[in-house]
Amino acid sequence: MIALLIANSLALASLLIMLASGLALIYGLRDVINFGHGAIYMLGAYLGYTVALVGGFWLALVVVPILLAILGIAFEYLALRPLQSRSHIEVALVTLGLGIILGQIIIFFYGGVARSVDAPQVLSGSVTVGSLSYPVYRIFLIVMGLGSCALLALWLRFTSSGLYVRAVSQDPSVARMMGINADRLSLLVTSLSAAFAGVAGVLAGPYLSIDPGMDVTMIVNCLIIVVIGGTGSIGGAIVAALLFGLVQVAGSVFLPNIAALVPYVLLMVVLLIAPRGIGRGRVLN
Amino acid sequence: MNNRTTTAESPRVATVGAFRGPSVRMPLAIAVVAIVFVLGAVAPAQFASDFVLRLGNEGLLLGMLALSVAFLMNQAGLVALGAASVYGGTGFLFAIAMSEWDFSPMGALCTSFLIIVVYATILGALIVRTNPLAFMMLTLAAGEMISHSVLLEGVRDYTGGADGLVVNFKGSILGMEAADFADPARFWLVVWVAAWLAGLALWAVGRSRLGAILRAVRENEERMRFSGFDTYLPRLIAYVLVNIVAAVAGLLHVLNAGFVSPESLGLSISTNTLVAALMGGIAGSVGPIVGGLIFSFAQDEFGARGLTQLLTGIAIVVFIVVFPRGVVGGLWSAVRALGGRRGTS
Predict the structure, then answer these.
(1) Beta bridge partners of A129
(2) Residues 6 or more apart in contact with residue B326 via CB below 8 angstroms
(3) Of residues B267, B313, B324, nearest to A104 (C-beta)
(4) Which of A33, A97, A267 sits opposite B141 (nearest CB)?
(5) A103 contacts in B (CB within 8 Å)?
(6) Which of B268, B296, B298 is nearest to B54 (CA)?
(7) pLDDT grade, residue B23 (50/70/90)?
(8) Chain A residue nearest residue B78, CA to CA
(9) What pLDDT was estimated at residue B6?
(10) Residue B9 pLDDT greater than 70, yes or no
């Protein structure tokens, strides 16, 4: 029972980590919360659905992130860079608008009905460990989620570009003075974050349903995670995503009637205790 | 770090509406405003069709919501994405108080209003101390929480779930019965007066000491704290104030419609509100209300083709990037520029 609970919350947290860390990365570099991130994730899910129909799930898992990385590059060049001199709130509102536009375009093409994707043959079915049996796909999800999280941590920790990203996140003006090109980094980070959203979207297909409201649900969850984790802190976001997954899953088991409200209660509690979140995010105006 | 805020205005223009000195213009301006008020109150009911009046009513209600969002944006630099939760929330509370608790209309009105004000105060106390970006995220989360909670299994008997609630309106409020509120021409008068009161009240607050403190906190909170000002309470008061305006709009809406649906709590209402505020221009009281009217008529033009949301998204981007002052703000500065040129030549 407890093991199942933890496994389920890890599976949910895996998706959330991929999305929330993407948000936190962009925020660290640009001080912008990308309110359109949910729509990018939804685009990933729908594109994943189409590509999976044509060429199978594995192809989707490769192609969709690449396509979305290109979208991320466009987003960087067409939105973030021209608006660099504007206030962060204005840019955040622009991303909100762009997200609505993208969401509506997706609904225009795919209609308002929910779709579902089947997991590939290898990943369907379940494994039995001891007395417990667990769907293979969710294990795959956990491996992917934690794996990408580990890769991200390794990149940030051990490569020079990761070092630069951390430097800019910590103090943009000093980092710039030391000769770090924030623009070039931002290009990398934006495309990476969009690609992660694409992976999450494709992975969400067989796990959750693909429906037109998924962008709002996901962006709201991610925003809660980012706030709980301490805005801009990637480590905080990861911890918060795990916590969020656990609370969400435990809530739906023990308090099925009010499960939908549990994340918000968590948010309020964290805000009351630690208004800046659990991670040490950079304090911003 | 560059601490620019949502307004593209300079601080000088931010004290918008200030006439230059107590000149002859002052009585003239008051006379013009009074004429516009009376004409607007009387003329549409005489000349416009019921259909146009209905759109106008919706526009004014949205305008009042936009006014609340714009005031907070302009004065405090805070963007609220949860306008719908207060707007629809009062509607739900009113309907529940009428149908389930058997309150009199006036009692239901006051009860739902008070509950929402208490809610706004508690939420505000929690969230106004965060930074503007976190504030925006938190209002979005709180709004979604309210819109989810209405659909919960346990409260479905109360809220009607996805079907919404029909208001069981018996009796009268200030001599007006259900049929009077549903009549577009009569309701226009009510909402017109309400919008003016809200606009004048927020305009007055913006020009008061509280408004000055809010703008100073918006520019640099640390400096204000350092100078010995309380930066928390003014923002909380502003937050509660704008929610009172939104609650009044919500009550008027439910009285007019006689019905509340979960859609009235949805994110799209909040984004529509934002668009109305941006379209009209967030500085001053006229812009947001005009923006609400523009939005309402534009939605009628394009909404039938299912394009409303798409246009909402495009409008957010276009108005922020290209016309940050909105329609009214743009016209206002154009008039001023013309006037200035005539003065010097």
Answers:
(1) A132
(2) B277, B278, B279, B280, B281, B282, B287, B291, B319
(3) B313
(4) A267
(5) 309, 313
(6) B296
(7) low
(8) A89
(9) 44
(10) no
- pLDDT over 70 at B22, yes or no: no
Name the minimum distance, in Å, from the CA of A223 to any CA of chain B: 6
Q: Report CB contact under 8 Å: B6, A89.
A: yes
- Which of A94, A97, A223 is facing B141, going by the closest CB pair? A223
Nearest CA in chain A to B140: A220
pLDDT (tens digit per residue) in A226-274: 888 877 677 788 888 888 888 888 888 888 777 778 888 888 777 777 7
A12-35: burial string, b at 16+ Cβ within 10 Å, e else: bbbbbbbbbbbbbbbbbbbbbbbb
Return the residue in A27, A89, A219, A271 with the most chain B beta carbons within 10 A, the one to mutate for interface testing.
A89
Contact B314 A101 (CB under 8 A): yes
- Which of A87, A110, A174, A271 is the best residue to mutate to test the B interface, defined by the most B CB atoms within 10 Å of its own CB? A87
Chain A CB within 8 Å of residue B91 CB = no
Q: For B262-272, write each residue's pLDDT tens digit.
A: 888 888 888 88
Asked if residue B275 lies in contact with residue B69, where contact means CB atoms within 8 angstroms, the answer is no
Whole-number pLDDT of residue A281:
52
CB-neighbour burial class of residue B13 (10 A; exposed 0-12, middle 13-18, buried 19+): middle
* Domain A2-112+129-273 classification at class level: mainly alpha
Q: Which residue from A88, A92, A100 is facing B312, i.e. has the nearest CB?
A: A100
Rounded distance between C-alpha atoms, residue B174 and residue B190, angstroms: 11
How far apart, in whole angstroms, are the C-alpha atoms of residue B55 and residue B273? 15
Q: pLDDT by residue (tens digit) across A80-89?
A: 888 888 888 8
Whether the predicted model's global pTM rises above the 0.90 cut: no
Tell me the two tokens of residue B345: 């030549």
- Is-contact A204 A210, C-beta < 8 A? yes
- As for the ipTM of the complex, it is 0.81
B131 reaches A (C-beta below 8 A):
yes
State yes or no: pLDDT of A135 exceeds 50: yes
- CA distance, residue B335 to nearest chain A CA (Å): 26
Q: Residue B19 in contact with residue B29, Cβ under 8 Å? A: yes
Q: Per residue in A199-220, is it b (16+ CB within 10 Å) or e — as a string?
A: bbbbbbbbbbebbbebbbbbbb
pLDDT at B342 > cutoff 70: no
Cα of A59 to nearest chain B Cα, Å: 31
Q: Is B216 on the interface with A (CB under 8 A)?
A: no
Name which of B136, B141, B271 is nearest A92 (Cβ-Cβ).
B136
pLDDT band with cut points at 50, 70 and 90 for residue A44: very high
Residue B202: beta bridge partners?
none
